[in-house]
Amino acid sequence: MLRLLKAESVSASYFKSHIFRKTLSQMHTTPIETVLCPNPKQGMYCQLLIGLVNRNQVVSIGSIFASTVVRAIKFLEDHWKELCFNIKTGRISDWITDSGCRNAVSLILKPDPKLAESIENICCSESWEGIIKMLWPKARLIEAIATGSMSQYNTLIDFYSKGLPIVSAVYSWFEAFCGINLEPLSKPSDVSYIFVPNMAYFEFIPRLCRIA
Asked: What percent of the chain has pLDDT over 90?
């Protein structure tokens, strides 16, 4: 009997798993509907909105890749006024049309003018140095892959977080996880990974050199 192996990226596989659904509600402020939103812009907006509403509960900021952390802060720079208006009024913006996102956010979002004002006072600063620590005062680390090609974003993350530790616990491609960092508190420049060969199927094809 032939059995077919399902091929899909590690992120898609993990996000659709029952394990992720179970741990998400226990360890993250983000509702599952905003993670699985087919519209990346709407999903990121709603995740930031919920993160700001629960700003005093957040103990870490993270994504799979360091580039996404930087992109989220840049996105926040462009949308903080609108986000504050949502928090002040308790109503989500009309351009958020994904029903899953709207329903999930509506269950959490309540009018909170005082919270909106405090966020406005932080975001209107001329410099956004340390903005992560100011918006999320209990945050203790940044979780993201910050080695290899992602290392180019570390300077910006240091600027926005004012030196919070960057924890690069695993190494992965979009397709699969392939390494684990046994010393996660090491600086990104000092990180090394233990190769995990059973996390995916690898095929090494010999390279044929042509003689000119």
From this structure: 58
- Taking CB atoms within 8 Å and a gap of at least 24, the contacts of 165-168 are 165/140, 165/141, 166/66, 166/141, 166/142, 167/62, 167/141, 167/142, 167/143, 168/144
Beta bridge partners of 145: 65
In angstroms, rounded to a whole number, what is the distance separating the alpha carbons of residues 11 and 159?
28
d(CA 17, CA 58) in angstroms, rounded, equals 24
Ramachandran category for residue 167: left, alpha or beta (phi over 0 → left; psi -120 to 50 → alpha): beta
Using a cut of 0.90, tell me whether the model's pTM lies above it.
no
Residue 32 contacts residue 24 (beta carbons within 8 Å): yes
Asked if 131 contacts 123 with a C-beta cutoff of 8 angstroms, the reply is: yes
At 162-193, the pLDDT tens digits run: 989 999 888 876 667 778 888 888 888 888 88
* Structural contact between residues 35 and 114, judged by C-beta atoms closer than 8 angstroms: no
Give the number of other CB atoms < 10 A from CB of residue 37.
Answer: 21
At a CB cut-off of 8 Å and minimum separation 6, what does 71 contact? 44
CA distance 50 to 151: 28
Hey, how many other C-beta atoms are within 10 angstroms of the C-beta on 54? 14
